[in-house]
Design brief:
By secondary structure, the protein is an all-alpha fold. The chain has a domain at 56-272. It has 19 helices and no strands. It has helices spanning 21-53, 57-65, 67-89, 98-134, 140-153, 156-172, 177-201, 204-221, 239-270, 276-311, 315-351, 359-372, 376-391, 396-419, 424-450, 458-468, 470-484, 490-516, 519-534. Mean pLDDT is 82; it is low at 1-22 and 531-535.
Length: 535
């Protein structure tokens, strides 16, 4: 769940000229700043967990179990957030609509609380049957551990669900500051809980840490409800509930299929090596480092604008706004991917290889990361494309594409993992195939509907970003090789070996971007500076 900061002024559909050209870069910059803060704390979180528990069957059990709250949240709230909640709540923009808006929020909180409580109780009861579905390849002792971890973690679903509705309310109002605090607070909650509970409870401390973190995430968003009057209401016949369900109905099928894919993925991984799920999760975390601050932040920044442009039937500005978002994504995600490819091993050593996490664990994680990187740029551009269909109140096409690519994964993954004997690396490679296919299909569908994005600079930006990434590889890789030969010991030495190449590579990209005329990066940096000065 990505949290983003934002601005206080209402979004306006500009009557002439470019459609919010400054606002997209500004909002994306604000969103990215919040995500970066979260990711920095996320690095600390991952280091604390890896150092405390290492990689084992028990950590793989937790990594599998941690998907349960995510899957349920996406099914009942998260998938609805971008596809239905934000577009619908965005319509309550005037002071005259505040009373009705408050009633709608009261209904949403009440109905979803009831549903989520029932779901939590069912999962508590069904934990012994859920565990083998998730990790059927584990031995009985690990299955018992998995069952315990499920029962400890599922109460977080109720908290995440209520937090998600509140988050959608803030996004719809384009007041992102409160949600921005959520992800950092969540990571901080995990860190503190693990440090306090790890030695006393062992791996079960991780499940309890998630519950504590969910509470902190909700708590920091509650002040944003100031002035909103909420009252318990089971008005399930309210027209907005029907609209939400109609918009969301197609998405449910997609999420169900995706969740089935996740379950099968975990089950397949449990049949390779016991530590496989942990290695995959550690590599996925590094992939998510650029995706959250870049792709998700930009997608959420343009979603309200796209929703209003679609309502105004302004196809020209709709395409221009989406293209601007895609250019921003490509300008950042491509050099980030190159940097991870060059510095993946030292970054993994710096974050994970402490305490219980060994050099052998690092080697496995590096190989998984390299395969995940193949799908990174496609995953990055895919999200804005999906959100552009949500803005059009079209949830059917993204759903069908999601189902098709999950089926593709379920065909490719067992073939690579077991028929070709790639083990869990085959599952990782299949994931990159799935992400790539999804992005290409979404581009094709958008082209059929709008005639594509030709002439809007998206392809040109991709080429410029690739060319500008050459200094990233040369400066980052070369400086790392030099520093590796120097007698730099301890954590500080490792940090220098990683930090200096990142700074040099990033500096080289900035210079190359200016030389290549990549104006989007300059606008993004200007927006960040203005926000920092304003604070």
């Amino acid at each position: 769940m990505t949290q983003i900061p934002g601005v206080d002024e209402p979004l306006e559909v500009m009557p002439s000229g470019a459609p919010g050209t400054g606002s997209v870069a500004r909002d994306a910059a604000i969103n990215s700043a919040g995500n970066i803060a979260s990711r920095l704390l996320g690095l600390v979180r991952e280091a604390v967990i890896a150092g405390s528990f290492g990689a084992s069957g028990a950590t793989s059990a937790f990594d599998a179990v941690s998907a349960v709250p995510k899957m349920v949240y996406e099914l009942l709230v998260g998938g609805m957030l971008s596809s239905a909640l934000v577009p619908v709540l965005s319509e309550y923009t005037t002071p005259q609509q505040e009373q009705e808006r408050d009633h709608v929020l009261s209904v949403l909180f009440t109905l979803w609380a009831v549903v989520l409580i029932v779901v939590v109780l069912l999962l508590e009861i069904g934990a012994p049957w859920i565990a083998p579905a998730l990790v059927g390849g584990f031995d009985p002792e690990l299955l018992a551990t998995t069952t315990l971890l499920i029962r400890l973690i599922v109460p977080s679903i109720l908290i995440y669900g209520l937090s998600g509705i509140l988050q959608a309310f803030h996004y719809a109002r384009k007041r992102f500051a409160y949600p921005a605090l959520g992800a950092p607070a969540h990571n901080l909650g995990v860190i503190v809980a693990v440090l306090l509970l790890a030695t006393r409870l062992g791996v079960p401390a991780l499940s309890l840490a998630i519950v504590i973190a969910a509470l902190t995430q909700l708590a920091v968003q509650l002040p944003g409800l100031g002035g909103v009057r909420l009252r318990p209401s089971l008005d399930w016949r309210h027209p907005v509930i029907r609209r939400l369900l109609v918009l969301y109905a197609p998405v449910v099928l997609s999420i169900v299929v995706q969740n089935v894919g996740v379950i099968i993925d975990r089950n397949l991984a449990s049949r390779t090596i016991a530590e496989a799920i942990t290695y995959m999760n550690k590599a996925t975390f590094l992939i998510q480092l650029p995706l959250g601050p870049v792709s998700m932040a930009i997608s959420l920044a343009v979603l309200p604008t796209l929703s209003q442009l679609d309502a105004a039937r302004d196809d020209t500005r709709f395409k221009a706004t989406l293209a601007r978002g895609l250019r921003l994504v490509l300008a950042v995600i491509i050099p980030a991917g190159v940097g991870l490819a060059v510095l993946g091993r030292p970054i993994i050593e710096l974050i994970y290889e402490h305490g219980a996490y060994t050099a052998g664990d690092t080697a496995q994680t590096v190989r998984a990361l390299q395969l995940y990187l193949i799908g990174l740029p496609f995953a990055a551009i895919d999200l804005p494309l999906v959100f552009s269909f949500y803005a059009q109140k079209d949830t059917v096409r993204p759903v069908l594409v999601g189902i098709a690519t999950v089926l593709l994964y379920l065909l490719v993954a067992p073939t690579l993992a077991f028929a070709l004997n790639w083990g869990f690396y085959g599952l990782v490679a299949a994931n990159s195939v799935q992400l790539t296919a999804h992005a290409f299909i979404m581009l094709w569908l958008f082209r059929r509907r709008y005639g594509g994005l030709a002439g809007l600079g998206v392809g040109t930006m991709a080429l410029k970003a690739l060319a500008g990434s050459a200094p990233v590889a040369l400066l980052a890789g070369g400086s790392y090789l030099v520093l590796r030969g120097l007698p730099l010991a301890g954590f500080l030495g490792e940090a220098i070996r990683v930090g200096v190449p990142i700074l040099l590579g990033g500096g080289g990209y900035v210079l190359a971007a200016r030389w290549l005329g990549m104006a989007e990066l300059e606008e993004l940096w200007t927006a960040i500076r203005r926000k920092l000065i304003a604070r």
